[in-house]
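Re: duplicated header lines in exported C-alpha cells

Our pipeline writes sequence and C-alpha cells for each protein into one text file. With two proteins the header for the second block appears twice in some exports. Here is an export where it did not happen, for reference. First protein block:
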Amino acid sequence: MGLEATLISFASKNGSWTATASALAFGCLAACGGDDGGPAPDTAPPLAVRCAQLANMRIPSASIGLPTTGAVVASTQMKAAHGAVGEHCLVSGDIMPVDPTAPNIKFQVALPADWNSKAVMLGGGGFCGIIPDVAGNPLNTTPDAVTPLGRGYAVFASDSGHQSNPLDGSFALNQEAYANWASDALKKTRDAAIAVVEATYGDAPTKAYFLGSSTGGRQALAVAGRWPADWDGGVALYPARNVTTAMVGGLAMIQAFAAPGAYLDPEERGVLYRAAVAACDALDGASDGVISDVQGCNATFDPSTASLDGVPVRCPDGVDTGDTCLSDAQLTALGEANGEVPFDIPLASGEASFPGFNAFISDLGMASGSPLQPHVAATGLGSAPPGFPVTESMSYGAHFVDGFIRYAVARDAAFDYLTFDGSTGGAFGARLTELSALDVADADLTAFAAKGGKLLMLQGTEDLLVSPRAVEAYYSRLRADMGADEVDAFLRYYEVPGFGHSVSAVFTAGWDYLTALESWVEEGADPATDQIVVDTTGVPGRTRPLCTYPTWPQYRGSGDMDSAASFACTAD
C-alpha cells in the first residue's frame, strides 16, 4: 500500500501532528492541494523544506513487511553538491526490534534534488555493523563511474541490525539480530526507506536495484529470492552465500593451517604462486601474469611435483629447510584447503560437502612488494597462523569462522572454534541444521525470473574468502533446478581470472555494472557478450572481456595483451 494512504506521526516543537505522505511531499497539512479538495500543486517545495519536514517521521510497524516495533527518522541533513553528486538530503533512521534486547537497525537514505524516479539499495560486508556510504560508489566499479546518487538514484542502506566492527560476530548471540543479518534487515530497511522516499517525492520508485559484494552479494541474491516483488534487478559480486556451509568449509582450511608446521610465510606463498604462474600462465596463449584457464591449471598443477626455475617446490624429503620450498606439512594443509570437505550434517540446502578453494593457484598473500599485499594477505592466510583467541594479524577467514562458531553456533564466547568438529557438528549438529534454514533464501529465484527481474553475478577465481567453486556450484544448481534456458533469460554469471576478494595485486576488477544492469532491465540490452572489465591494480587500465562462466578470456594470438580486443571468450 502506498504511503499516500498511510497516516504517519510526527513530533513538532508544539506537540504532535499527522499528515499523509502526499501532504508532506507537497508541503501542506491537508491531503489535498486547496480548500475545495482539488488536486495538489504540481510543484513541490524545495528539497531543503521537504528534508526538514522528514525530521522525527515515524513509520508504523504495519508499513514494514516483517515484525518490528516501527521506525523513526532520527535526523536529516542537507548536503551541498560535490563533484558529480548533486544536492541531496541525508536521512538517518532507526528500525526498532521486537525483542527489546536486540539492537536497532540503523539506516540511511540519500535523497537527490534531481531524482531519476529510481532507487538503489547497497549491501554490506562481512558481519556488517556499519552503514555503507550511500553517497559513494560500491566496490569494484570502474574508476570513472558516476555514483548511484550522482546518477539521480535515491540510495539507501543499513548496518544489518547491529553496530560493530565487520569482523565482530558477537551480535549473533541474539537470535533476532542474527536473523536480521542473515536477511530480515533487508526487507525491514527496504520498506522503511521506501516510506521515506514516498514521503519525500510523493511517489514510489519506478525501478529498484540492489548492489552488493561479499555479504552484500549474498544479500542481493536473498532479496531476489525472498521478496521478488520489491526488486527489478541486482548485482551480486563474489556472493558470500550459504553461510553455514561456507563457514564450516572455511573452518577446515583454517584448521589445516593451524596444524604444527603447516602455516606458510609470505616468501613460501610466493614460491607456490610463482610456480603456478610459470606452469599455467601461457595456457591462455598470453604470458601476462594472469592464470585465465583455471580449470586447465587445476587439472594439471600439483605443488608436490611442481618446479620453479628447475628447482622442486617440495623441500628435499619434505622437510622444512627455509623459505625457498614447501614442507610436507605445508603441502598437506594446501591439499586440504584445495580439496572437498564432506559433511555428515543434514543441511537445508541439501549439500553434503564444501568444494574447497583454488588454493594451489591463488595469491595467498605473498611478499611481492605490492602495497596491496597486506589486504590480499588478510583475505588469504593472514600474517599470523590461525589460533584462539583470534588476533588482528590473523586472516579475515579466521575472524569470520571464529565469530560464527562461537556466537551463532556454540553461543559461548569462551568456545575455541579450532576444536569444532565441522564434519558432524558434534554436540551442535542440530544447531547447524537450524541455522542452515536461514541460508536458502536464494535457492529459488523462479518468482524473480517470472516478473522479469535481472541478476548480474561476478566472482574472482583467486578468492580465498568466497570459494569460486561454491559459486559455480550454486549457478549450476540453479540451471539444473530451473532449466538452463530460464536461467539464461534473467541471470549472467562472470568469472574474472586473477581477481581475489574485492582486490588483487594481480588483477582487480573494475566494471560499470550498474549501467549494464540498467540497460538490461530498462532497454533489453543483454550483457552476455559485450562487457569489459578493467584492471585497476595489476596493470592499471588493462582490459579483458568479461566472460560468462564457464568461458574464460583466451588470447587471439596477436594484438596488445593489455586490450580486451585481443582476447576471445572460450571454454576450450
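Second protein block, exported in the same file:
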Amino acid sequence: MDVLFTPFSLRSLTLSNRIAMPPLASFLTDKGGTVNENTVEHYRKRAAGGPAMVIAEAAAVSAEGVVSPFQARIDHDRYVEGLAGLAKAMEEEGAIPALQIHHAGRQTSSKVIKTEPLAPSPIPCPAIRGDVHPLAVSEIQALVKKFGDAALRARDASFRLLEIHGAHGYLVAQFLSPFSNRRQDEYGGSTENRARFPVEIIQEIRRRIGPEFPVSFKISAQEFVEGGLDVEESIRLLEHIVAAGVDIVQVSAGSDATPEWICQPAFMKEGCLADSAGAVRSALPVPVMAVGRINHPQVARRILEQGNADLVCIGRGLLADPEMPKKAAEGREEDIRICIACNSCMASIFKKGRVECLVNPSLGREKEMEIQPVGQPKKIIVVGGGPAGMNAAWVAAMRGHHVQLFEQGPALGGQLMAAAGVIRHKQGIQKLVAFHKRQIERYQVVCRLNCAGTLNQIRAASPDAVILATGSLPLIPAVPGADGPNAITFRQALDGFGPTQGPVVVVGGGATGCEIALYLAERDLSVTLIEAMPKLAGDLEAMTRKMLVRKLKERGVRLLTETRLVCIEDGSVRVADTQGRESVLPAVPAVLAAGGLPETRLWDELQQEPYEVYRIGDCNTVGTAKEAILEAARIARAL
C-alpha cells in the first residue's frame, strides 16, 4: 500500500492520509484581518485537492502581533464568524480544519502596528531593524492569556487542531533562541527558562480547551545563525514543550536572520529538512510533521519510508497544484504542476501584499480563474511555445476551442527551457514544461514544431483568433563593439555558443546576468560581472537573491556594481565608474545580459488582418515569466 495514503490517528482525529498543508501566509483577508470570500475559496480549493489536514495561516493573537494589515486575526470575538466559515469550507471538502496562532514579536514594523514591536530582549529584528520594547514579566503573562483566548476562539470556530507558531524568528521563537533572548530572569538563560514562555502558553491553552484537543507546535530546529538553535538544543527545548501538553511537532528551520531556510529557494535540495525532522522524531515520544521543499509525492514518500516523519507538510506544492494529493492517489502524477521553488509567492507578498504563483496563475484568484466551457468554439492559433504560449493553448483547448500551436524551434519550452537545460538551480523548469506538454497532449492541441508562424502560415490556417507569445529579442547596448565579434548574447551562451576559456565579462547584473555569471563560473571560467545599478539581481525575490549573490562570491566572480559599459574591444571591455573613471577588463568574450526588447514583427504584420489578435508576455511588455503566464491564463479564459 502507498505509504502516503495510509491513515493516521492523532488523539480524536483520524487523518485519511499522511499529507497536511502547513500554514502559509496568503494575506487574502480584508484589511484588519477578517476572513472574506477570497480567503475561503483559497482554502476550499486546497482542501478539495485531497490533503488529510489543512492548517490555515497564522492568525495573530494580539493587535501588535501582526506582520501585515492583511494578516488573519483572532484577538477578538468578531473574528470568529469568518474563521468558522473557513473551517466549515475545509471540512466540507474532506480535510480536517486546523489553525495556527501567532505573535510576530520583534519581526514586524512599527509602521504596521503603530507602536514599538515587542521582544524578549532589547535586540532589534536583524531584517527589519528599529527599536523594540523588551517585555516585562507582567506583559509576558498577559500574552500567555491572549494565546489562551485565541485557542478558545479557534475551538469555537470549529477548528479541530491548533498549532502554536514557535518557529521562524517570531515571538515564541525569540524566547526559545539565545540568538534573540538575552534575559537574565526566569524567561532567559537556561534551556528550561527559554522554554518557559511556550510551556506557559500550552498550559494556558490546555486549561482553556481541555486535555483532549489536539495541539501542534512548530519549531525551527535549526536557525543557521551564530548563537541560534541547532537540532540538539531544539530537542532539549521540545522535551519541556511536549511535556506541557503538545501532541505533535512540525519541524521547520530558519529565523529572521536566515529567511532562506524558512522558504527554501531552488538552490536547496528537495526535502532539505527531513533529517532534522527525523532526529526530532527519534528523540521525542510524539509524532512529527516534516516540511521544507516537499514538492512532489515521490519526495513525500521517501521521507515517510525513511522514518523521518509521520506526516509530510506540502505547502508551496499545494499552492502550485492544489490537486496534488488527489492526482497522486489516482496515479496521475504526470499531471501534477510542480512547485519550482522560484519563491514568486514570497516576492508577491512583499511587493503586492498578497500571494501569487508563477506556475499557477489561479492562486489567490480562484473565483476569477474558474475555467468555463466555451459556448461557440473558435479556431485559435498560438504562436510561440514557451510556458505562456503553452498555457494559453491548452487552457483554450480545455474550454472547447480548436487550437494550433506554432513553435519555430524543434521543441517546446522556449527561452526558459534553454536556461533549465544548463543552469543547475533552474532545472525545475523542465518539470513545468513537462506539465504543459502533458496538458497540450491531453486536450489535443495541434502542435507544429519548426514552424515560425509566418503571416502566410497563419492566413492558410484561417483562424478566428491569434495569440502571439513570440517573446523578446536581446537588447544590444548602444556602445561601440556591442554588435562585434567579441560580444555574444546571453541566449547564445545558454544555447551552447558560450565561452570555453575566458576570462569573461557579463554585462548586466539583473537576475539573468547573475545566473549566467554563476553558470560560467561553475564551468571554472574566470568571470567578472558588471552592473550599472548599485544592487545586483534587484529583480529577484530576496531569499533567492541572497543565495545567488552568495554563490557568485563563493565561486570567485568579481562583482562590479555602479559600473557601466563604455565599449567592447578585441579581447577586452572598457568600463567606467560613477565618477567617469575608465578601466579595461580582459574579456573573451563579453556576454550581453542587459535585458530584451519585445518581438513585434508579427504583431505589426497582423494589424490589417481580419482576426482577433492578442499578445502576451515579452512580445507585449518585457517582464517576468509569472506575468506572462498570468496574461496567458486570462486571455485563454476570456476567448
